Task: inverse folding
């Protein structure tokens, strides 16, 4: 799969909002710098409509401008990112690529994540939010769903926290390959199953103790009914990939189902919901 790389000049104060807008258009890879943002989208998903809409939203952010667009051939991004991806300490987790020599302390849980064209390295606020929430939850002997698994980081974290079985799915073929490699790298290949596709990968009658979803507003709103259906009574659902401004919409959707909100967490412009059934 080839990708389109777009580079924007935009103040870091506005980057999270801008990313949220791009995520609505199927952009899923981002590199953030102080005054610049790089965004990636699968080439077949990019159209004139995307370009026109991007031109509109750029005008909303003071000083923002489009810099350049580049075709990116399918590649292993390790070579590109080795100099930029650094270890992240998030709660009790140490997230790092294999090429980093940083060692976990005795109390830390090591998550070794080597990204390719799949995303979820611990750099984005929503990944940090949900990893910190995972850190608080009892996963011992639980069954877990990871919707939109990306690199597999959340599925791996759940397995390392004691889950007995984890199923992650993603429609990106790079994700399936990368997530499978990362599960083996972390020694949880016998616990984590990665399926290629969308919500149809959740089979009829399949139930989970804990469901995790770090995607985006539109997908989350569509997924809520399905996640509730496939969560066991007393189970937990964690939702993020959401802006603070999405809170009312998510609350309204959750109110349609027999769930209660246990916890809400924020980081920067982003929000996480933990609900129980």
Result:
């Amino acid at each position: 799969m080839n990708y389109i790389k777009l580079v924007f000049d935009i103040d870091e104060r506005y980057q999270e909002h801008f990313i949220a807008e791009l995520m609505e258009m199927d952009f899923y890879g981002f590199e953030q710098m102080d005054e610049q943002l790089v965004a990636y989208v699968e080439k077949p998903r990019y159209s004139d409509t995307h370009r026109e809409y991007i031109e509109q939203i750029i005008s909303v952010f003071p000083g923002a401008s489009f810099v350049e667009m580049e075709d990116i051939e399918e590649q292993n991004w390790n070579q590109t990112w080795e100099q930029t991806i650094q270890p992240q300490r998030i709660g009790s987790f140490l997230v790092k690529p294999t090429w980093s020599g940083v060692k976990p302390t005795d109390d830390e849980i090591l998550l070794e994540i080597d990204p390719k064209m799949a995303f979820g390295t611990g750099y984005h606020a929503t990944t940090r939010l949900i990893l910190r929430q995972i850190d608080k939850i009892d996963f011992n002997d639980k069954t877990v769903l990871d919707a939109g698994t990306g690199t597999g980081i959340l599925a791996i974290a759940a397995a390392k926290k004691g889950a007995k079985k984890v199923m992650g799915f993603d429609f990106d073929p790079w994700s399936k390959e990368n997530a499978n490699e990362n599960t083996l790298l972390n020694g949880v290949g016998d616990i984590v199953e990665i399926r290629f596709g969308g919500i149809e990968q959740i089979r009829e009658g399949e139930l989970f103790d804990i469901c995790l979803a770090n995607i985006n507003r539109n997908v989350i709103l569509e997924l809520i009914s399905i996640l509730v259906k496939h969560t066991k009574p007393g189970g937990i659902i964690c939702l993020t990939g959401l802006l603070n401004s999405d809170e009312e919409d998510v609350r309204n959707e959750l109110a349609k189902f027999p769930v209660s909100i246990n916890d809400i967490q924020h980081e920067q412009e982003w929000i996480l919901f933990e609900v129980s059934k």
Observations:
- Residues 3-74 form a domain with the Alpha-Beta Plaits fold (CATH 3.30.70.100).
- The chain has eight helices and 14 strands.
- The helical segments are 15-23, 48-58, 78-81, 125-136, 153-160, 173-185, 217-229, 247-254.
